[in-house]
Amino acid sequence: MTAETIRRTQGRGRLFNSILDTVGDTPVIRINNLAPEGVRLYVKAEFFNPAASVKDRLALNIIEAAERAGTLKPGQTVVEATSGNTGIGLAMVCAQKGYPLVVTMADSFSVERRRLMRMLGAKVVLTPRAEKGMGMYKKAVELAEKHGWFLARQFETSANADIHEATTAREIINDFAGDRLDYVVTGFGTGGTVAGLARVLRKERPETKIVLSEPENAALIASGVAQKRGAEGAPAASHPAFEPHPIQGWTPDFIPLVLQEVLDSGGYDGLRPVAGAEGIAWAQKLAAREGILTGISGGSSFAIAMQIAERAEAGAVILAMLPDTGERYLSTPLFADIPEEMDDEERALSESTPGYRMAAE
């Protein structure tokens, strides 16, 4: 590569006051090798957020909205139930702002998530996997009530969808300004992403179809069964359609109040189930064929985007949300078939030259 053709960078043109100022403005990236002929397929890579997931956005806004409202006092402990990404985002925010953080999390979620939160200074209280999401949720409520801590309430707070309306949706609108955008595909955890997108896209890009997905074996929305709720819209019990699934971060064992806004307002155009194995397979293909490392949730959104792309009209433009990085899944089925040691082909390459060879096992 000559000096005339080498890639160059010029900096961002600003100095950042803290890590928190780097949240948002994640890139939309074209899929070149996996996309069917005749359509344009893109992904929004939320792992470009500083703590590597879409939940950095809501974590920051929950804390700052509470600061503005005066409901979070200086030095007060924050507590929240999370499958990991919100907890990691909150740990980053609380570390920068000086709040102690306690996270409750079912012990079924990946161990690297616990270690990341602890690395960022949080305390992680594990709950039995048999109690599912409701167990970790109720434990956070108990701790908040007993100790007078600030409960983040990601599943109910308006600060969740508000930040996606103000940032995620606006980024998409601006990135596709003057261009087609036929489909946006996303799953749901809290429902904040799809709620924020629906508020904006329904008004400014009504031609764009919002496709929502959920695990095939935990199809809470498709079941048509309403969620039982308690005070302030909190879930009162596990949803009867829930079964454990491998798509961490998606679909807890209840329908969050934040998502209920989307269901009540008709904020989506299609609902598609996806098998966890399919999400894993497409996450692996994204890594191997596109160099894009995302988690099982991202692979699951992409699986649905590929289904749409294969049947879409020529010229269609499709965007899939990728919520987080694949590095958050090292101890999960996503990496189960990725070996640590050399395989036969790698060993043969090693033995093709005489030096620096590993001893035979």
Automatic annotation (TrEMBL):
Keywords: Pyridoxal phosphate. One of its GO terms (biological process) is cysteine biosynthetic process from serine. InterPro entries: Cys_Synth/Cystath_Beta-Synth (IPR050214), P-phosphate_BS (IPR001216), TrpB-like_PALP (IPR001926), TrpB-like_PALP_sf (IPR036052). Residues 342-361 are annotated as: Disordered. It comes from the Bacteria. The keyword Kinase does not apply. PROSITE patterns: CYS_SYNTHASE. Residues 20-324 form the Tryptophan synthase beta chain-like PALP domain. SUPFAM superfamilies: Tryptophan synthase beta subunit-like PLP-dependent enzymes (SSF53686). Its cofactor is pyridoxal 5'-phosphate. CDD domains: CBS_like. GO terms for molecular function: transferase activity, transferring alkyl or aryl (other than methyl) groups. Belongs to the cysteine synthase/cystathionine beta-synthase family. This is Cysteine synthase B. It comes from Pararhodobacter oceanensis.
